[in-house]
Design goal:
Distance between the termini: 43 Å
Organism: Asticcacaulis aquaticus
Largest sheet: 7 strands, parallel
Helix content: 25-40%
Strand content: 15-25%
Pfam families: Sacchrp_dh_NADP
CATH topology of the largest domain: Dihydrodipicolinate Reductase, domain 2
Radius of gyration: 20 Å
InterPro entries: NAD(P)-bd_dom_sf (IPR036291), Sacchrp_dh_NADP-bd (IPR005097)
CATH architecture of the largest domain: 2-Layer Sandwich
Protein name: Saccharopine dehydrogenase NADP-binding domain-containing protein
Number of helices: 12
Length: 348
């Protein structure tokens, strides 16, 4: 076994940033994928992963080749069977929430397997852990993400979002009925101004209430240009009313290309917010608003950090408990923000 990290989809939107981040930290990287011109290890993920692991013998696999919605745990199980640590960037609610089903298998193999190593639930839980002691009771969390129009967008991420646009979302704390990209609302970001938000389906909707005892949670995502956001909102109604004769993710490529045409009208500045509400130690209502703002197109660095830090620790032999779990609580806010210092990213 080497101390290298194999990045599946290592030339994609997040994969290339993770690979660069690991190299900067002195970790050897193997770029894997289907494109022989861009991948050092070229193979089909569904059929060739086991052979590739035997050939290259990485210490860790970072799986960035989404979307993860509707997929099984084949990649994780193959890594566990080979004795290779595993990290993925999944934002698929059922995928991440159910990942613990592999826990016994991973423990038996002395393998650490972590799912959802991205902004949610890793950064969201890090923020809560950082401020939790300021509350006597923490009751509600409202959070959301809005990238800049000019920020690089990946096809897998686009397809993942489209998979639940207009679809009924499984009930979550405080919201027994919600639909993807509906629940239209506006949030004002410091340095960025107001942006529209719509309901999204993410692992936090299940993980955070269960872990922190929340009575209500809400998560939204938005697009910088209001007319594009409203266009997708309108499209969500055609899905909800069953007017489309085909699944919406089939439009991922043309919709992504269409959105790219409007890049000159927007910026490459985006952000994330978290509003935490509850009761202070004085018995009075308490609210904390937290924001992280990324400029100059550095937004995609934020979801890349958890995989970089976790893969580095595993590759360098730092002790991380074996087993399969989500990224919730795996990285402190201080460590997270320290990794972002080289970029034009600030908190507010």
């Amino acid at each position: 076994m080497t101390n290298s990290v194999m990045v599946l989809g290592g030339y994609g939107n997040f994969g290339k940033r993770i690979a660069d981040g690991l190299r900067t930290r002195g970790v050897p990287v193997i770029i894997a994928g289907r494109d022989p011109k861009r991948a050092e290890a070229c193979f089909d993920l569904n059929t060739g992963l086991g052979e590739a692991l035997a050939q290259y013998r990485p210490a860790v696999v970072v799986h960035t080749a989404g979307p993860y919605q509707g997929t099984d745990y084949h990649v994780a199980k193959t890594c566990i069977a080979a004795g290779v640590h595993y990290v993925d960037l999944s934002d698929a609610r059922d995928f991440v929430v159910g990942f613990g089903a592999l826990d016994a298998e991973a423990r038996a193999a002395n393998v650490t397997a972590i799912s959802g190593a991205s902004t949610v639930p890793c950064l969201s839980s890090a923020v809560i852990d950082h401020v939790r002691d300021r509350f006597a009771t923490l009751d509600e969390v409202d959070c959301g993400i809005c990238p800049g129009q000019g920020a690089e967008r990946g096809l897998a991420t686009t397809a993942a979002i489209l998979s639940y646009v207009g679809q009924p979302l499984k009930p979550f704390a405080g919201h027994p009925k919600a639909y993807g990209w509906q629940g239209l609302r506006r949030h004002r970001f410091p340095h960025l101004g107001p942006r529209l938000m719509g309901d999204c389906d993410i692992p936090d909707l299940d993980l955070l209430p269960a872990h922190y005892g929340l009575k209500s949670i809400r998560f939204g995502a938005g697009l910088e240009l209001g007319f594009i956001h409203l266009g997708l909102w309108a499209l969500s109604w055609t899905v909800r009313w069953r007017l489309l004769p085909f699944p919406l993710p089939k439009l991922a490529t043309p919709l992504l290309k269409a959105a790219d045409l409007f890049d000159p009208l927007g910026s490459d500045d985006g952000g994330m917010f978290m509003v935490l509400s509850g009761t202070g130690h004085d018995g009075q209502p308490k609210q904390i608003d937290w924001h992280i703002i990324a400029k100059d197109g550095d937004g995609p660095q934020i979801p890349s950090v958890p995989a970089i830090l976790l893969a580095e620790r595993l590759a360098k032999g730092e002790p991380l408990a074996p087993g399969a779990r989500s990224s919730l609580g795996q990285i402190s806010l201080d460590d997270y923000l320290a990794a972002l210092k080289p970029f034009n990213i600030v908190t507010a």
